[in-house]
Inverse folding.
């Protein structure tokens, strides 16, 4: 830690020694100590976008803080080794490398840290030169995930700040943690807060990757947490009720919340009592120039990404056609390939994606070698594959919507997997679907189905408002990239042969 901080510790120790010989009340004269907790969360994009965010700007902000404050603790609220395109090549190793460089202090495991399974998660943890917290995770031996810490103690002057980490138990449903399980949040928070206080912590901080409802629950219940530094929702939050504080720093390092915590000892009724108070600052990454050394490292990774995109991943044995009029007017082999990969990727009953999201606008001859760049060119928007639960009636409504503006070549036209649809081109919009089968059986309006689709239409994009009424099982912030899913699907077998096979058939 810094020189000035250790000097201050010496001053305090001297005061204590003096007090033994002079006046017993002297410790009250200990000067207050300020610690800056600087937090990022949900950062998987290493480069800046529109002049904000990215790791080089974060680095500049961290250096600025380290220059101005005695003690800075730099924390990360999780979701970082996935789902970027770069992570589909190195399973997130580049992120750990960059955080090692930035001298991150603490990272909590988010759901995305389990996207490549528990073994990769442990591998990434082993590469970190900082502490990784996963206090409520349980590996097969009943202990927190291998290589992670359950707690971490920092000292600032005479004070101790205890940290532990929480990962949303939802991770079991929205990622791939394998046999790793997650203990309930409130009980874990109580247990670890108590443990830290027993070990002498004056202040207890939870670094958490939990949803905002879970955050508020932890604030309102008697969780033992003084300061909660969270992630997962991509929200910019500062919350303080006079007793507890909760913050979250948006996403991608665009705006960071810093909590300057003043730690002090006051005398009340003849007793020495510890008190703390937070002051919040929001630091904007647009206010600094990117750190040059970090920007150079980022560029090395971006160059590597560009090379990796040109690596062949498999052969298309059949011809593919992603021309605009094709994907917005009827069934295509490439649309079938994409939706098959999406359906398999999230294990859904059916899949649907909008033609407007397939952008290559070209044809591929049968037998062509596909590269990752081909897939990236077809799916350039960074859309993710979400999983929804909806009724047969809602699915029918979505399909009607999909066929409603085919005359205009609208982007809403659906490619599907797991179902067959016949529709009438001449019928009025909204009454075009003739029949739908799912898994060979007629669609039941009352039954519920799971659907893989992209996060854009799931938010109501291209007019798919009906999807906003469905139950999200994997939402946009928990999902993996569509493009990565298709690359993995092609690479898994090395040969694909999608064809137009009567999934979407126009009659009259
Ligand atoms: Zn998350």
């Amino acid at each position: 830690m810094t020189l000035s901080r250790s000097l201050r510790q010496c001053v305090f120790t001297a005061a204590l020694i003096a007090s033994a010989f002079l006046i017993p009340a002297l410790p009250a004269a200990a000067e207050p100590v300020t610690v800056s907790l600087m937090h990022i969360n949900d950062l998987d994009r290493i480069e800046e976008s529109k002049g904000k965010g990215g790791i080089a700007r974060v680095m500049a902000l961290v250096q600025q803080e380290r220059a101005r404050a005695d003690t800075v603790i730099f924390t990360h609220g999780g979701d970082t080794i996935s789902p970027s395109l770069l992570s589909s090549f190195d399973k997130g190793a580049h992120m750990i490398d960059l955080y090692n460089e930035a001298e991150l202090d603490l990272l909590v495991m988010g759901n995305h840290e389990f996207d490549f399974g528990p073994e990769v998660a442990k591998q990434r943890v082993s590469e970190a030169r900082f502490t990784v917290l996963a206090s409520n995770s349980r590996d097969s031996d009943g202990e927190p995930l291998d290589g992670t810490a359950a707690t971490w103690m920092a000292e600032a002057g005479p004070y101790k700040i205890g940290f532990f980490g929480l990962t949303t138990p939802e991770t079991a449903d929205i990622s791939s943690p394998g046999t790793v399980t997650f203990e309930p949040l409130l009980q874990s928070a109580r247990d670890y807060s108590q443990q830290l206080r027993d070990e002498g912590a004056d202040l207890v901080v939870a670094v958490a990757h939990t949803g905002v409802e879970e955050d508020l629950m932890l604030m309102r219940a008697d969780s033992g947490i003084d300061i909660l530094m969270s992630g997962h929702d991509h929200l910019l939050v500062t919350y303080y009720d006079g007793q507890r504080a909760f913050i979250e720093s948006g996403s991608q390092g665009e705006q960071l919340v810093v909590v300057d915590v003043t730690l002090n000892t006051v005398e009340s009724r003849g007793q020495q009592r510890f008190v703390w108070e937070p002051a919040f600052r929001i630091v904007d990454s647009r206010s600094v120039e990117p750190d040059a050394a970090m920007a150079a490292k980022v560029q090395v990774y971006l160059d590597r990404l560009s090379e990796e995109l040109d690596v062949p991943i498999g052969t298309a044995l059949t011809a593919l056609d992603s021309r605009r009029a094709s994907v917005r007017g009827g069934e295509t082999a490439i649309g079938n390939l994409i939706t098959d990969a999406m359906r398999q990727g999230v294990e859904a009953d059916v899949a649907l994606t909008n033609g407007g999201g397939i952008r290559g606008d070209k044809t591929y001859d049968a037998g062509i070698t596909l590269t990752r760049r081909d897939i990236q060119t077809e799916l350039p928007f960074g859309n993710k594959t979400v999983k929804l639960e909806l009724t047969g009636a809602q699915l029918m409504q979505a399909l009607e919507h999909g066929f409603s503006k085919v005359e205009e070549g609208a982007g809403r036209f659906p490619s599907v997997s797991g179902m067959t649809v016949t529709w009438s081109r001449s019928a009025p919009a909204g009454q075009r679907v003739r029949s739908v089968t799912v898994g060979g059986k007629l669609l039941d309006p009352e039954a519920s189905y799971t659907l893989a689709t992209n996060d854009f239409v799931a938010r109501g994009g291209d007019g798919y408002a009906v999807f906003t009424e469905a139950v999200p099982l994997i939402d946009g912030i928990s999902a993996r990239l569509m493009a990565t899913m298709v690359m993995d699907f092609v690479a898994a077998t090395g040969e694909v042969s999608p064809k137009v096979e009567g999934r979407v058939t126009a009659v009259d």
